[in-house]
Structures are given as C-alpha cells and as structure tokens.
TrEMBL record:
It comes from Komagataeibacter swingsii. Belongs to the 'phage' integrase family. One of its GO terms (molecular function) is DNA binding. Residues 1-184 form the Tyr recombinase domain. It comes from the Bacteria. This is Tyr recombinase domain-containing protein. Keywords: DNA integration, DNA recombination, DNA-binding. GO terms for biological process: DNA integration; DNA recombination.
Length: 199
C-alpha cells in the first residue's frame, strides 16, 4: 500500500510565464536585427499580443488597410488589430506571395512544437536565460499597454482575453514604479490647477 496515497499535493503559486523586461527585449533585438527571422517573430509576438500558436500562422492574407484580421485558434475569438509602426517596418521585407510570415528552413509554415523549439534556440543564441519563452512576449505586450495608460477593456480588445480577470493576471508585471510616478504626477498637475484657481 502506498503511504502517500491520501496526502494532498502542495500547490505552489506562480505567475506563470516570465514577462519579458525591456532589457531582455533590447538584448534579443541587438542580437537579431530587422531582416532576420527571429526579429520578425519577436515583432509579431510583441506588437500583436497574440499566442505563439496564432503568430506562427499569421500572413499577408490577414492584413487589409493596415489592420490585421484574425481568429484565435484557442478560443475562436475574432479580432481586428491595427498594425503598429514598428511591426510594419519589419513586415515590409516579407514577400507578399509567402504563405505565412514565418516559414521553416524548408519553406513551410511552422508546426506548434517546431516554432517553440526554434524560438527557444534563437533566445539562447541571444544569451537570454531559460525562463524566457515566446509566450512571455504576450505578457510583455500586455505590460506595455498597461504602462502606456490603456484601460483593461482596451488591453482585452488587443489580446483577446475572455475576462478582465485574465487581463489583470497578464498585466500584473506592469512596471509598478513607472505607474506610481505617473499617478503621483497626475495628482501634482491637478493640485497645481486647483492652486491657480484659488489665487
């Protein structure tokens, strides 16, 4: 008889995938310049805020008038996302006849496992630690939107999360110091306006 049969497993609470920092993004970009496939992958992940499984299937067929039209494979959620200027810069170099933006060395679209393994190798080549994954760029996208002052509903509209609770989980890594500075600065501006009105 197994003596551990009735022992409950201790659940460890984690924040899930590591959220890429700005320093980690810069390190990856320094290793992989615009025009390289790894830089294209990073730009698609970071500037659309989508899961790696959807990013590997993206192509010109989804873009019309500067807007990407996609349906998330995991949830079936339909999204329209404007193309960020930085992403547009990277996409300019991709031939229009290419089936998907990201292709294997054999000229075929990536499989899910193939893309994750390939991206892991590019991350290692950039000298970044093992805790970093492609999915962490989805969280970095949410963090950047938070730090830019976007509302939870705006962030939800970009990432396609089904609930605001999910958005909160993804934006937990937003730069607290930056947000606190912004909050205090807004109070200072408001107080300055009130002081002028009272004079």
């Amino acid at each position: 008889m197994d003596p551990t049969r009735d022992v409950r497993r201790i659940r460890s609470k984690t924040d899930g995938f590591h959220t890429w920092t700005e320093a980690e993004i810069a390190q990856f970009e320094n290793r992989w310049p615009i025009g390289s496939k790894p830089r294209l992958a990073l730009a698609l992940l970071l500037y659309t805020g989508q899961r790696p499984g959807d990013v590997r299937q993206m192509g010109w067929y989804q873009i019309h008038d500067g807007v990407m039209d996609l349906r998330q494979s995991k949830t079936g959620t339909h999204l329209t996302i404007p193309i960020h200027a930085q992403l547009a810069r990277v996409l300019e170099l991709i031939p229009r006849q290419q089936q998907t933006f990201l292709m294997t060395g054999q000229g075929k679209p990536f499989t899910a496992g193939g893309f994750n393994n390939w991206f892991r190798d590019q991350r290692r080549e950039a000298g970044l630690p093992e805790k970093i994954s492609a999915h962490g760029l989805r969280k970095a996208s949410a963090r950047r939107l938070t730090e830019a002052g976007c509302t939870a509903h705006q962030i939800k509209a970009v990432g396609g999360w089904s609930t605001l609770k999910e958005v909160e989980r993804y934006t937990r890594a937003a730069n607290q110091a930056s947000l606190a500075r912004s909050a205090i600065a807004s109070i200072k501006v408001r107080n300055a306006v009130q002081d002028r009105e009272e004079v």
